[in-house]
Amino acid sequence: VTAEKAGFDHFMLKEIYDQPKAYRDTMGSRISPDGLGVTLNELKITAEAIRNINRVHIVACGTAYHAGMVGKYVIEKLARIPVETDVASEYRYRSPIITKDTLVIVVSQSGETADTLAALREAKRCGAHVLAITNVVGSSVAREADDVITTWAGLEIAVASTKGYTSQLIAFYLLGLHLAQTLGTQTSDEIKETVKALKELPAQVEEILAQAEAIKVVAEEMAKHDNLFFIGRGLDYAVAMEGSLKLKEISYIHSEAYAAGELKHGTLALIEDGVPVIALATQHELLEKTVSNIKEVKARGANVLGIAVEGELELQKSVDSTFVIPKTLDVLSPALAVIPLQLLSYYASLARGNDVDKPRNLAKSVTVE
Ligand code: G6P
């Protein structure tokens, strides 16, 4: 078992460090050698069928659902198709409007989650084209979907998903680019720029991992608290959701993720002296707004850790401490910003003496509804 962990203390830590490879393997030959675009040769859906898609539904559970929240932004931004996201256990029961021109994307690391599988079957019954993003070749979800994009993260053992999630993000970027190429919603220069930035991500993840020690110090302090908040806007909100789930799963610290602008409509009442707030602020267009939300919590005594892109000095002045991630395109930042949050949860769980890889009450794959 020690050998399987490749010298790491826990599977989760090993899997966090597997991520640069998981990114590279998932991109693999799907990025054209000239770097001009992507080729998803495995997809059966025709260009004509893509042009007919009038809505996309992304359906998943847990961490995979949070990858889907990022996927919504990515597809809407790159391909300009309206996207809805649903947790799989809700989807079937709200009689969603599904037609043959609906693309339903199910996301599942294991490919065996019962709720997700049931949603897939309902979507197929209604005639939708179903595309699965999964990490397990030959899984139930992979077998039953019309199309599959396999994430090449390798076996994920820790209950808390890390490389499973980030490789799903890479799959969404590839899919978003593929749709954009087919629909002509991005110029060839824009596609080239995104592909170039995508290829830089693995090395940038390595840069973040090299600073794990700094996150450990913060995590040990946070582990003393029983309540904390994650805030962010846009894609940062999606990442905040995942950061909060990760922390709850393995540290058992109560946390909530809030769209930063929504805080003042109720939850701000919970902010008092010393409450830790993790503010994700990687989206350049929203930066000013996020800074004003940071000031709202600071004024109530919160202790704010900012997750910021390098060079944003104005933001750094408004928080108590900052963790800096390398520069990338706004749309790609979730693939970097989530890494410090994974490490934060890992070290907070460790500081609390929990069983990191096997948290109480949870299972790696939930095959009952
Ligand atoms: C379980 C796991 C979560 C996971 C979710 C969905 O609840 O504990 O970590 O995100 O299932 O799993 P899937 O395999 O469908 O991605």
UniProtKB/TrEMBL annotation:
Boundaries of every SIS domain copy: 46-185, 218-359
Cellular location(s): Cytoplasm
Molecular function terms, GO-annotated: glutamine-fructose-6-phosphate transaminase (isomerizing) activity
EC numbers: 2.6.1.16
Chief location bin: cytoplasm
Enzyme active site: 364
Record carries keyword Transmembrane helix: no
Keywords: Aminotransferase, Cytoplasm, Glutamine amidotransferase, Repeat, Transferase
Catalysed reaction equations from the record: D-fructose 6-phosphate + L-glutamine = D-glucosamine 6-phosphate + L-glutamate
Complex and partners: Homodimer.
Function: Catalyzes the first step in hexosamine metabolism, converting fructose-6P into glucosamine-6P using glutamine as a nitrogen source.
Protein name stated in the entry: Glutamine--fructose-6-phosphate aminotransferase [isomerizing]
Section covered of the full-length record: 241 to 609 of 609
